[in-house]
Structure formats: C-alpha cells, structure tokens
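User: I'm new to structure prediction. If I give you an amino acid sequence, what do you actually give back? Let's try with this one:
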Amino acid sequence: MKKTEAMKLLRAAALAAKNAHAPYSRFQVGAALLTDDQRTFIGCNVENASYGLTICAERAAVFTAVASGWKKFIAVAIVASGDKPPYPCGACRQVLAEFCGPETEILIAPISKLASYEETTLGELLPKTFKL
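Assistant: Good question. You get back a string of structure tokens that encode the predicted 3D arrangement of the chain. For your 132 residues, that looks like this:
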C-alpha cells in the first residue's frame, strides 16, 4: 500500500478513536477497514462497566461493515492513545480472519506517531487461524 493511502486510512482510524468510550481504561482505540472496492468503515472501542461487554475498535469496525453489506477487506489500520503500537487482541485477530486473508495489510500506530506506523499482515499476526 502506498504511503499516502496508508496515511489516509490511519487518519480515519484516528478520527474514530476520538469517539471511543473509554472511561475505565482511558485507552482510546480507533480502527479503519478498507474494502476491496475502496470503501472505509471505522470503529472505536466502547467500554462498559461490565467489562466483558466491552467491544474493541477492530470488531466494532468489522461489525459495522458487515451490517452495511461488506464482507471483504484488504487493509486495516489500528491506532490508539499512548506511545506504543496497539496490536489487536486475539479475539480481534480471529474476527478479522473471518473476513480477511492472510495477506491483508495491517497498519498499526500510536495516534501521536501516525507517520511512523508499522506494517504487517494478518497472516503474520495470526498464522494459524481457526476455521470451520
């Protein structure tokens, strides 16, 4: 993915992070998915007092896209407050694997350092997915 396209996706994720509801962790996360026809869907983390009901930004973005009729993604950007790259949790990796191939690009960066994002693939993050 070209740097200009990557930055556009990362900025979309950063805008989504501003909408995060994170009163407990104070860790705002945003995600942006790029579909195979160049549409972007965003999501943010939404925490709940019953912490197990919290949803991560990546899953929020996937569920929004699927509810809107899209199920094939070619890239994902994940950003968060703080100074470390916000790698997706195991549950999010598995949900992404349902709709993405191992070659799907994953862009990860702290919001404060978007230009120095890390690039990886879903296959590198989750080499052995669960499949039915």
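You can read the tokens as a compact description of the fold. Here is one thing that stands out. The helical segments are 3-17, 57-67, 90-99, 122-125.
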